[in-house]
Amino acid sequence: MTSTSPADGAGPDHVDVLVVGAGLSGIGVAQHLQRRRPHSTYAIVESRDRLGGTWDLFRYPGVRSDSDMHTLGYRLRPWKDARAIADGPAILAYVQDTAREEGIDRHIRFGVRVVRAEFSTADARWSVDLHHGATGETSTMTCGFLFSCSGYYDYDQGFTPDFAGVADFGGTVVHPQQWPAELDTTGKKVVVIGSGATAVTLVPALAESAEHVTMLQRSPTYVVSLPRTDKVAERARRWLPARAAHTVVFWKNVAKTSAIYALSRTRPDLMRKVFRKGVLSELPEGYDVDTHFNPRYDPWDQRLCVVPNGDLFRAISDGRASVVTDHVDTFTPTGIRLRSGTELVADVVVTATGLNLLAFGGMSFVVDGEEVDVRRSMAYRSMMLTGLPNFAFALGYTNASWTLKVDITADYICRLLDHMDAAHTPVAVPQRDASVGEEPFLDFAAGYVQRSVSAFPHQGDTAPWKVSMSYPRDLVALRRASVTEGMSFPATATVGAR
């Protein structure tokens, strides 16, 4: 995919690879493009005014990673901070520093949203329609390859159920995705509705200054306490060269996470007991663990919630926070009445009730004049789609650090682009075998997934069409896999037009 010149029709708004999204994934993909394919041109378009994606968007108290940073950090720029579980500002600074130090920030166009992308097989080129948020104007860029790093949820709004009586409530209701900078919960009674990663992060953070914080949940979630700092990492850095220390800690954490997930799937009763015992050790004797921290579903049917140094359990033990397992009946002028008849008095209610999913940032696709419905497409190696030539997307793991999959996805796509250059085949599109069966794209029981999974493509029931959630398996498979397997390389009218 060699860069084109103005003489063959490519203006200043043509690049070899256009990356959509300047978050953790987009910056990571740009790293690989710069190092693996320095002869190619690329640009990143970002709908917001700052880079960082999730880590710039979420500003609620206590926001942090729920994966260890030694695997969430970039392989090409390892995380060096002592904290294994880091707060949002530290992660944002890490992404920003990576972009600045490697010159990636010079390739980003901010305030630009991709609304439509049209591919011409004859020209081997995408024409991408852009909306400029600050002016309302539109423009077009062209590229040879389109790489979506926009995540899978809607950045504009989170999910909030239609609670009865909200209009009658005299206090403040806020969703964590739109946390107001001016909101002060000091000395106030706060109810956090939800039991997922956001809720278990918010509760101990708010409890530091609020009068009291109540986590109101319909049903429990598996909550696991992990050290905020990694002792093995500290020792490794003392005794080993930096690269060797990172390798040791990285693979230690990958092995640990993989083992926990594997045991959760094969020995769920055993792991349920292990997680329950861990919670019992963190809470006062006699606490009703089975009501509030013993889920009905098996471990890893939904993502585990991590609390660093048991901060949630400490807040509960100290009486600064409590957990109520019940259903909302209605809001009242002074709080929330539960289905049991109990009323929770509140000054502030936080609806940590989940996300709205959005496939590929909501952009629409056209190929050779025909609209493409991505819901009819099938994922190839968890990174490309049938029916969309020269298109890839970054999808991280739901059972491990997101960046692990982004790194090996970027590696694979660089290999594919190298092959396309060497073979003079400027178009590549996955070609589905008719015998492959269909399954939901995200095989995950979380409510936010189940609400919206029908708007996403399918996955297959066998490799390379099945979405894999195993980093060790993917690492071996994708590095060894032929980039031509399951791939079609259609003839074009203009070879080398990119």
TrEMBL record:
<keyword id="KW-0274">FAD</keyword>
<protein>
    <submittedName>
        <fullName>NAD(P)/FAD-dependent oxidoreductase</fullName>
    </submittedName>
</protein>
<dbReference type="Pfam" id="PF13450">
    <property type="entry name" value="NAD_binding_8"/>
</dbReference>
<dbReference type="InterPro" id="IPR036188">
    <property type="entry name" value="FAD/NAD-bd_sf"/>
</dbReference>
<keyword id="KW-0560">Oxidoreductase</keyword>
<keyword id="KW-0285">Flavoprotein</keyword>
<dbReference type="InterPro" id="IPR051820">
    <property type="entry name" value="FAD-binding_MO"/>
</dbReference>
<dbReference type="Pfam" id="PF00743">
    <property type="entry name" value="FMO-like"/>
</dbReference>
<dbReference type="InterPro" id="IPR020946">
    <property type="entry name" value="Flavin_mOase-like"/>
</dbReference>
<comment type="similarity">
    <text>Belongs to the FAD-binding monooxygenase family.</text>
</comment>
<keyword id="KW-0503">Monooxygenase</keyword>
